[in-house]
């Protein structure tokens, strides 16, 4: 990534650093955290959050999206691994939040035999729409 | 937890790796259990051997289980490999060496001097350690114990108790949980109990651990076994056919679908011990490129050796008794040659590009040598493969079966890591790995550009694969030696790796650019 850019530049081929969509991941006290795109602590103007939390408090996701167009802006996950490539594509394609929630299974990167929570997340999302 | 103020935060802090009181007591309990076995070994009569054996096994088991509970259950779920390089036993320190030497000595005695363990000579009654296991053997199959029964019992005990410890250590990870339960089940059922029960049902059947497939089970097609399979009629023939089918049909299908892990880290006994008892030593495997190069030559040479040896042995007894074997010497040898030529041509024609240079040379050289030897045998009427079949058989049994898989493979756990045999020696792993690399749906996927090059994956890879080298480039990991234990994926702090079965297309993707860097690749290449 930035290493490749630096190497090209040092070797005489000046290259602008162009780091694609923002992503990050880390581990806090044995809970893994990942982020793709932009999710702010409080949603930006014209944006809103969709939040889902597992009942045992070890897993949650937060999705930021644009209220008018429903366009997906970013996702934070705790305790669930997501696939970088898939979110990178979805962000580039400017998918809306309904699409992301419906296709969340494709983006799962958890090891085999892990429990899935996509159905639960989808249910929460649908319920929330009905309340609004 | 140390109560003293300003305790050291250094990684090398010796205080951090002390034992709790519970752990000390459980170590004492386990050591007393081992002491009972040692006293039996020294032929000191402790009275009722059934009682002493039960006591010893319970003390060892309870000691290990309590120790594991005290180590893992007080902490949060999640892997803590703190201090593995500093602890004497897992960091090639004094305890590591002592353990290595003791286990190595045990294997040498087991294979070459079983009478020291107390095996009765020429059918006389057992003494010592073997006699201690007589009651258990009588209970299961109604015959006195042998040194192999002692070994099998201790082996199974080790897989069970250390499997429990492994499960606690990786209890947040369902893949590890399921896999370890599978390994414990196959060892206890298929390797330990079923053969004993089969003996009770039909004492003419040879000992047959059904999951132990030729060529790992290199003696499966020797004359005495094939004869007794045939003599046992239906059940025996079924077992013989299963033995052939398991290597030629079952294992290729499963390896195609799931990679070699279905066997190496889910079923196999050698893998089972390495994964459970060997877990604290997994980081000791050699990660150097030179080790990989040696590995490629050694493991495939062992495979060639076992193919030659088995061919020669079967060839030597075919045609002895036409009523028994419909296969004649010539048909057998011809089909072996046809099969090898078929495989060789198949891969040379369609998969040549997937081979490294050394692999291509090696394959051609070995193929020419084998075919040359068979032709030479027909021309000059000398022994097939120059040596007597019996010489080949006994030297394979000694060099590979005993020294490599037992003495070096297990005895050197604390020095070379837990998978030395699986990585450098096992001919079964060579076949499965060959297939995994060229024709399987299995791969370890790298999650885009997430890798931070911390190196945990490489460190804890028991097969010595430099996982990081692939992960930091965003490549999939498709290596013949990978046993799919899933530890690289489990220790990764950023969730970068995932074991997957998917389509063959695009499985090996060494040319992709890393995600997170939107450069125009074509422009870059053209520059």
Summary of the model, kept short:
Chain A is of the alpha+beta class and 132 residues long. Chain A has helices at 2-10, 84-92, 97-102, 118-131, and strands spanning 23-28, 31-37, 47-53, 60-66, 72-78. Chain B has helices spanning 21-41, 49-72, 94-112, 114-117, 128-132, 134-141, 147-169, 174-201, 223-231, 233-258, 261-264, 269-276, 289-317, 329-350, 357-380, 389-408, 413-416, 420-425, 427-438, 456-459, 467-471, 487-491, 521-526; strands at residues 442-446, 497-501.
Written description of the protein model:
The complex is a heterodimer of chains A (132) and B (527). By secondary structure, chain A is an alpha+beta fold. Chain A has helices spanning 2-10, 84-92, 97-102, 118-131, and strands spanning 23-28, 31-37, 47-53, 60-66, 72-78. In chain A, 29% of the residues lie in helices and 26% in strands. In chain A, a hairpin with a 5-residue loop joins strand 4 and strand 5 (72-78). Chain A is globular, with a radius of gyration of 17 Å. With 527 residues, chain B is an all-alpha fold. Chain B is built from 23 helices and two strands. Chain B has helices spanning 21-41, 49-72, 94-112, 114-117, 128-132, 134-141, 147-169, 174-201, 223-231, 233-258, 261-264, 269-276, 289-317, 329-350, 357-380, 389-408, 413-416, 420-425, 427-438, 456-459, 467-471, 487-491, 521-526, and strands spanning 442-446, 497-501. Chain B has a two-stranded antiparallel sheet with strand order 1-2. The mean pLDDT of chain B is 89. The A-B interface holds A 1-2, 4-5, 8, 13, 15, 18-21, 23, 25-27, 29-30, 32, 34, 81, 83-85, 88, 109-115 and B 76-78, 172-175, 177-178, 445, 447-450, 486, 489-490, 493-496, 498-499, 514-519, 524, 527.
């Amino acid at each position: 990534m930035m290493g490749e850019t630096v190497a090209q530049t040092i070797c005489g081929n000046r290259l602008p650093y162009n780091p694609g969509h923002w992503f990050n991941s880390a581990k806090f006290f044995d809970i893994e955290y990942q982020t793709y795109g932009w999710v702010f602590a409080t949603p930006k103007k014209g944006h809103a959050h969709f939040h889902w939390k597992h009942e045992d408090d070890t897993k949650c996701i937060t999705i930021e999206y644009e209220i008018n167009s429903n366009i997906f802006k970013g996702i934070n996950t705790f305790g669930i691994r997501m696939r970088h490539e898939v979110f990178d594509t979805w962000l580039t394609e400017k998918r809306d939040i309904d699409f992301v929630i419906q296709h969340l299974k494709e983006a799962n990167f958890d090891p085999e035999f892990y429990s899935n929570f996509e159905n639960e997340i989808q249910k929460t999302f649908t319920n929330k729409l009905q309340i609004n | 937890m140390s109560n003293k103020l300003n305790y050291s935060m250094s990684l090398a802090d010796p205080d951090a790796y002390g034992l709790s009181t519970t752990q000390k007591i459980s170590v004492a309990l386990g050591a007393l259990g081992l002491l009972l076995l040692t006293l039996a070994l020294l032929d000191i009569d402790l009275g009722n051997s059934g009682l002493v054996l039960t006591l010893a096994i319970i003390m060892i088991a309870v000691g290990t289980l309590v120790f594991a509970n005290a180590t893992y259950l007080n902490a949060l779920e999640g892997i803590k490999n703190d201090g593995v390089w500093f602890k004497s036993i897992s960091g090639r320190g004094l305890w590591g060496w002592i353990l290595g030497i003791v286990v190595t000595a045990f294997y040498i005695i087991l294979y070459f001097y079983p009478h020291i363990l107390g095996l009765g000579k020429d059918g006389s009654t057992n003494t010592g350690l073997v006699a201690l296991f007589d009651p258990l053997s009588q209970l299961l199959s109604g015959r006195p114990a042998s040194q192999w029964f002692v070994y099998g019992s201790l082996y199974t005990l080790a897989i069970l108790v250390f499997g429990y410890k492994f499960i606690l250590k990786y209890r947040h990870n369902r893949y590890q949980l399921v896999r370890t339960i599978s390994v414990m089940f196959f060892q206890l059922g298929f390797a330990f109990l079923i053969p004993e029960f089969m003996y009770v049902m039909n004492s003419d059947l040879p000992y047959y651990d059904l999951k132990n497939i030729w060529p790992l089970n290199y003696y499966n097609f020797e004359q005495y076994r094939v004869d007794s399979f045939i003599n046992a009629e239906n059940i025996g023939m079924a077992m013989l056919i299963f033995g052939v089918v398991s290597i030629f049909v079952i294992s290729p299908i499963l390896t195609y679908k799931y990679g070699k892990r279905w066997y190496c880290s889910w079923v196999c006994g050698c893998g089972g011990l390495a994964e459970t008892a060997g877990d604290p030593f997994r980081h000791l495997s050699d990660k150097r490129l030179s080790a990989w190069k040696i590995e490629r030559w050694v493991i495939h040479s062992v495979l060639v050796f076992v193919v030659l040896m088995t061919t020669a042995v079967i060839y030597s007894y075919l045609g002895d008794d036409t009523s028994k074997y419909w296969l004649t010497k010539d048909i057998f040898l011809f089909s072996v040659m046809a099969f090898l030529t078929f495989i060789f041509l198949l891969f040379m024609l369609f998969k040549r590009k997937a081979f490294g240079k050394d692999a291509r040379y090696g394959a051609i050289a070995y193929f020419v040598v084998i075919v040359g030897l068979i032709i030479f045998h027909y021309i000059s009427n000398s022994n097939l493969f120059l040596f007597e079949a019996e010489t080949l058989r006994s030297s394979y049994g000694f060099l590979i079966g005993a020294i490599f898989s037992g003495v070096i493979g297990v005895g050197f756990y604390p020095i070379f890591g837990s998978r030395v045999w699986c990585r450098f020696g096992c001919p079964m792993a060579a076949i499965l790995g060959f297939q995994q690399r060229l024709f399987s749906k299995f791969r370890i996927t790298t999650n885009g550009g997430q890798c931070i090059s911390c190196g945990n994956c490489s460190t804890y890879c028991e097969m010595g694969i430099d996982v990081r080298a692939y992960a930091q480039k965003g490549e999939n990991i498709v290596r013949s030696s990978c046993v799919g234990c899933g530890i690289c994926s489990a220790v990764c702090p950023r969730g970068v790796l995932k074991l997957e079965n998917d389509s063959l297309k695009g499985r090996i993707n060494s040319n992709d650019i890393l995600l997170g860097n939107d450069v125009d690749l074509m422009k870059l290449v053209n520059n």
